[in-house]
């Protein structure tokens, strides 16, 4: 009868009050936990699970949560039911003397039991649930259907199996027979026929999906490791390698492949595997060469994971041209398969240590995906690498995956209040405001950006510096777990503080100050460097970003190039350069060339001016008239197509005055031009850096020094 009642409730994460005369658990002598159906092994097992875990949390242990009811005390009843016929995913029914919880499957029951324990703790001080995140389901009549069946969050917190169960999130590491671009694991050391033919040549970086040998190797992998799937069905991703190469061999071309799409051959492979293993499910990726859906309906046990890479993380993105194009593509996939998942992104992959306020934006996207009928979501974050505020971020995202209609600010404040007694208001204030600024930004969040991108989209340098300082003052007042978490947070944010300081040079939030007409490094910079060096104490804080840049290497570059660098008298600080060549988008401001702060050799985000053309700037003649020496540096990183110029030329009144050939440092990363000059008497002075010939190379230029 209770299950019928639950199934008729509103299937939303909401509830209505029930039984005004209901007893509070705290009024009862303890708890009686029982299965809804004594004959059900599932009900009995989950009743036992709840009893054991509640007893461990209960003051009084077995007396508060006895194995059986007692005649001398009134007990609060907790009844457990697994009901595969529920219309929703779960329901709660409150009666006068107890609560019945029902779930459609065991995974949801695990989540629901922790929701129950947290809610009980809110009414009964005998129950300790301080370690559990805030509950979304209380002790009242409630029923719910989750927005998405598959809910994966790839963050450090979500890698904890216990927390994943508490939050009801999926794990890509353990939940798939093959995931993402992992097909090379199966096809390693394969013969030539497994690889693609591109431009008439064999390409060992891509696969041929028409090859019988490719099919046989995948078939063997599935059969040997996962069997036929009748008892334990598994999911696999069968997708091209992560590049835009497409096989156009005779068989793939006959299937329909062109130089623009690999979808036809990949779909044929999926069809063969789906027929061979009808109990398993085979997905591909809607990404790059397989971005467009096929023209025909896909088999029932196949699906697609559509990449949202093309959808900007900016205000109005869903209504933009890119958003409308994405929606059309998503509808196209929905027309050919019911199993549509989304692969979306929640991290700046070039910078794990700076906050990335993506929650408001992701809430909007998740509501869009839900309304489009998407079945599953994978939110790609930093994996195992530490990011600031990861605990609250994981909690909020898991909550939104169940119900994207929940207010992000409310979820964040609730979490901080429960877990950070000393610093919760400070942290919530910073994070909520950061989310609001990011959500309103037309510039949007950059998935591969530096500090300038963060400041352009959400980060207010002065407010961040004030927050960082206040956090440093609050930390010593915290205790236990909160103190440890704040120490880790402040350590990571010291990277952002250094980046803000480097980016603002001699400005109010910068690392430099003027003394006697020259620039000197502020003493506080040493404190920020020392704070970041604490990263060695935290196992997950080894790298700055996805590229694997060690934090220690960044620190070394900062110390040698800025903190301990020889002070150079320069005639150019605070003088405006004029762009003669057309600047790249996002590099219109030439201030980085004259701010007095040297670029770091660890990457192009760190104080370098990028130019896709030969770089030419005009220097104010008045400032240059006393110059006796010219110096300029460039970053050389071939993997990013950044190369040192073949020469740097100085012009006086339109005539070539001097040409310099750059020379590399010992590591071959920074190339510098340097030499004597006499620029007196010139009315117009320009500097031109010439790119190397051949290829699509770019220049990354550093400080221009005119030394008196």
Low-confidence stretches: 1-5, 7-20
* Euclidean distance between termini CA atoms: 91 Å
Radius of gyration: 30 Å
- How much of the sequence is in beta strands? 15-25%
Spatial order of the strands in the main sheet? Answer: 1-6-4-5-3-2
Please identify the oligomeric state. single chain
Helical content band: 25-40%
Number of helices: 19
Shape: globular
Helix and strand content put the structural class at alpha/beta
Count of DSSP strands: 26
Report the average pLDDT across residues: 94
Biggest sheet descriptor: 6 strands, mixed
Structural summary, described in words:
- Helix content is 32%, strand content 19%.
- The chain is α/β, with parallel strands linked by helices and 708 residues long.
- It is globular.
- Mean pLDDT is 94; it is low at 1-5 and 7-20.
Summed up, what is this model?
The protein has 708 residues and is of the alpha/beta class.
Secondary-structure map with pairings?
Layout: H1 2-7, E1 12-16, E2 30-35, H2 41-57, E3 75-82, E4 90-95, E5 98-103, H3 106-123, E6 141-144, E7 150-154, H4 161-167, H5 183-186, E8 195-198, E9 201-207, H6 212-226, E10 235-237, H7 250-255, H8 263-276, E11 281-286, E12 302-307, H9 321-336, E13 340-345, H10 359-371, E14 376-380, H11 390-402, H12 408-419, H13 424-440, H14 451-457, H15 461-474, H16 480-504, E15 512-515, E16 518-521, H17 524-532, H18 551-563, E17 578-579, E18 609-611, E19 615-619, H19 621-624, E20 629-635, E21 647-652, E22 655-660, E23 663-664, E24 670-676, E25 685-690, E26 699-707
Helix pairs in contact: 2-3, 10-11, 11-12, 12-13, 15-16, 16-17, 17-18
């Amino acid at each position: 009868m209770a299950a019928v009642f639950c199934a008729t409730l509103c299937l939303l994460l909401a509830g209505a009050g029930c039984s005004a005369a209901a007893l509070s658990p705290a009024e009862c002598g303890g708890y009686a936990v029982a299965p809804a159906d004594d004959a059900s092994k599932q009900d009995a097992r989950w009743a036992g699970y709840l009893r054991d875990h509640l007893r461990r949390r209960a003051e009084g242990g077995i007396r508060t949560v006895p194995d059986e009811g007692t005649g001398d005390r009134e007990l609060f009843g907790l009844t457990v039911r697994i009901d595969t016929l529920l219309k929703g995913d779960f329901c709660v029914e409150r009666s006068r003397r107890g609560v019945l919880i029902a779930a459609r499957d065991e995974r949801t029951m695990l989540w629901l039991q922790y929701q129950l324990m947290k809610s009980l703790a809110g009414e009964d001080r005998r129950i300790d649930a301080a370690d559990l995140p805030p509950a979304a389901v209380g002790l009242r009549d409630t029923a719910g259907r989750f927005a998405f069946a598959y809910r994966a969050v790839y963050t450090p917190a979500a890698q904890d199996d216990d927390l994943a169960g508490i939050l009801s999130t999926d794990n890509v590491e353990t939940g798939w027979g093959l995931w993402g671009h992992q097909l090379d694991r199966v096809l390693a050391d394969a013969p030539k026929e497994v690889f693609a033919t591109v431009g008439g040549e064999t390409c060992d970086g891509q696969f041929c999906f028409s090859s019988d040998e490719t099919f046989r190797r995948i078939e063997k992998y599935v059969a040997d490791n996962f069997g036929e799937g009748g008892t334990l069905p598994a999911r696999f991703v069968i997708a091209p390698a992560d590049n835009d190469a497409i096989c156009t061999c005779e068989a793939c071309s006959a299937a329909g492949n062109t130089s623009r799409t690999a979808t036809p051959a990949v779909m044929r492979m999926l069809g063969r595997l789906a027929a061979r293993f009808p109990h398993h499910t085979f997905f591909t990726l809607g990404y790059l060469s397989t971005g467009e859906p096929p023209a025909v309906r896909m088999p029932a046990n196949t699906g697609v994971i559509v990449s949202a890479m093309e959808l900007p993380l900016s205000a109005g993105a869903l209504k933009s041209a890119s958003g409308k194009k994405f929606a059309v593509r998503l509808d196209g996939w929905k027309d050919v398969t019911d199993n549509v998942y989304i692969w979306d992104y929640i991290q700046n992959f070039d910078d794990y240590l700076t906050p990335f306020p993506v929650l408001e934006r992701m809430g909007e996207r998740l509501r869009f995906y839900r309304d489009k009928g998407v079945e599953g979501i994978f939110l790609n974050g930093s994996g195992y690498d530490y990011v600031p505020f990861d605990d609250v971020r994981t909690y909020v995202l898991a909550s939104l995956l169940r119900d994207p209609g929940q207010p992000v600010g409310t979820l964040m404040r609730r979490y901080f209040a429960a877990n950070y007694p000393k610093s919760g208001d400070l942290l919530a204030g910073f994070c909520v405001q950061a989310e609001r600024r990011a959500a309103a930004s037309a510039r949007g969040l950059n998935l591969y950006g530096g500090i300038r991108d963060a400041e352009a989209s959400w980060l207010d340098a002065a407010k961040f510096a004030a927050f960082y300082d206040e956090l440093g003052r609050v930390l010593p007042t915290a205790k236990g777990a909160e103190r440890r978490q704040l120490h880790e947070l402040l350590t990571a944010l010291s990277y952002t503080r250094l980046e803000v300081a480097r980016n603002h040079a001699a400005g109010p939030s910068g690392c430099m100050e003027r003394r006697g007409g020259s620039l000197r490094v502020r003493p506080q910079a040493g404190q920020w460097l020392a704070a970041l060096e604490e990263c060695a104490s935290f196992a997950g804080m080894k790298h700055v970003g996805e590229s694997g840049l060690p934090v220690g290497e960044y620190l070394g570059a900062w110390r040698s190039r800025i903190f301990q660098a020889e002070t150079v008298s320069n005639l150019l600080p605070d003088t405006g350069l004029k762009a003669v060549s057309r600047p790249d988008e996002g590099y219109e401001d030439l201030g980085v060339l004259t701010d007095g702060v040297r670029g770091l050799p660890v990457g192009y985000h760190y104080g370098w001016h990028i130019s896709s053309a030969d770089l030419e700037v005009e220097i104010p003649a008045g400032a240059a008239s006393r110059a006796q020496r010219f110096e300029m540096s460039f970053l050389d990183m071939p993997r990013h197509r950044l190369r040192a110029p073949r020469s740097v030329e100085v012009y006086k009144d339109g005539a070539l005055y001097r040409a310099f050939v750059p020379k590399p440092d010992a590591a071959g990363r920074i190339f510098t031009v340097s030499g004597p000059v006499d620029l007196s008497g010139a009315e117009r002075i320009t500097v031109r850096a010439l790119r190397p010939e051949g290829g699509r190379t770019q220049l990354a230029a550093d400080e221009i020094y005119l030394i008196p």
